[in-house]
Amino acid sequence: MKKIHIVLLILIVAGISGMSFFIKDLTTYETFESAADKKEQFVVVKVKLDQSKPIYYDQLKDPNYTEFYALDQDGNSRKVVYKNAKPTDIEKSEGIDLNGYMRNDHFECTKLQMKCPSKYKDNLEQQQKALPSTAASSTTEYKY
Question: Model pTM?
Fold first, then answer.
């Protein structure tokens, strides 16, 4: 083998091993059912807060424990344990990405990311309602 072939082979092996470190960051969204099949693997589950069940958070007893129920994309409800303070305005979030591990009876969340509602949504609806009446009254004829 020539020296160039050896160098190229070493670069290819180094590139493949370097990419393997980033593979764990390339996660796909799971459901609670598919996450249960991957008990000891880190997964991301896209959910909405289950508004029919209460959120448990006692700041005095344990400020680093929050428990709530969430609905996944299939509509399955599951208890979520988040060992951190209750996120502000979790009730108002449109969706939540849960990062963590599936346990026997619950999902143990290590990190969560809330999808906040758009602050422009209500404003846009008001503008659309006002648009037809505004457009009819603001027609002006110009003469040149």
Answer: 0.64
